[in-house]
Design a protein that fits this description.
This protein is mainly α and about 250 residues long. It is about 70% helix and about 5% strand. It has two domains: about 70 residues, Winged helix-like DNA-binding domain superfamily/Winged helix DNA-binding domain (Arc Repressor Mutant, subunit A); about 140 residues, Four Helix Bundle (Hemerythrin (Met), subunit A). The protein has eleven helices and two strands; from the N terminus they run αααββαααααααα. The chain has a two-stranded antiparallel ribbon. The protein is elongated.
């Protein structure tokens, strides 16, 4: 997706903050300097600053100017923040936080999905599973179908807050899925685990669904720990998802 001048300005400043090019507590350069550096108007700079304030990256006030906030203030459910972090470099701490979040949210969501999923919900998740299976067998985009699979099941919980969280979790989950996909045989080994989750939801068996998603999350955690131990390069989420080669 091609971004406009505002989007590009937000990206430039957001990436700079997340990468630490502006120290915590430091002020952003004054408006005239940013306008000259970025080749944009004061209006664009001001709107970009408002966007970064909304994302928790900076704060502004009388007499203190515009100052950079520490990462505990950042909105980690904002996809832009996740993408900027991936460009700056994903950390082991970030990835382990993600796994903790999944262990808290997804098992409870799968219990609800097993109780509440409609035939339409299940049909949508079946399509995503079929896309994952096709990517394993014939090559293609496994990660996008994997993401749709999990978001479809979160939506099947019929809980408005979890549905909203499924949108915010998108970039976070993609991080995990890309790392798992880079592991040899990761997708083909995880496919039956995904099938077990879906079958438990179809059977309206909350206990089985919870156990199945827990096994899937534990497998992803092991994949991530293996990749971290290998010191291989971690994915950058501003790039398209990698394609599986034909099996």
């Amino acid at each position: 997706m091609i971004k406009n001048v505002h989007g590009n300005t937000v990206d430039h400043l957001g990436e700079a903050v997340v990468a630490g090019r502006y120290a915590v507590g430091a002020s952003l350069p004054p408006e005239p300097m940013l306008c000259e550096e970025l080749g944009v108007s004061r209006t664009v700079v001001r709107e970009a600053v408002k966007s970064l304030i909304a994302k928790g990256l900076i704060t502004t006030g009388p007499k203190v100017g515009t100052r950079v906030l520490s990462e505990e203030h950042w909105n980690w459910f904002d996809p832009d923040v996740i993408i900027w972090q991936s460009k700056a470099g994903l950390t082991a701490e970030f990835l382990r936080d993600l796994q903790d979040l999944r262990r808290v949210v997804e098992p409870a969501a799968m219990r609800l999905a097993a109780e509440r999923a409609t035939p339409e919900d299940i049909a949508g998740v079946e399509l995503s599973y079929a896309g994952m299976k096709r990517a394993v067998e014939e090559g293609g985009d496994y990660v996008t179908h994997d993401l749709r699979f999990h978001q479809g099941l979160l939506s099947a919980s019929r809980n408005r807050m979890l549905v909203q969280m499924s949108k915010a979790l998108g970039a976070l989950l993609r991080t995990s899925f890309e790392i798992s996909t880079r592991r040899k045989d990761g997708p083909i080994n995880s496919l039956p685990l995904h099938r077990e989750v879906l079958d438990a939801v179809i059977a309206h068996d909350p206990d089985r669904a919870e156990r199945a998603i827990q096994r899937l999350i534990d497998g992803a955690r092991n994949d991530i720990e293996e990749v971290l131990a290998s010191r291989r390069r971690l994915p950058r989420l501003n790039q398209p998802a990698p394609m599986l080669k034909m099996g």
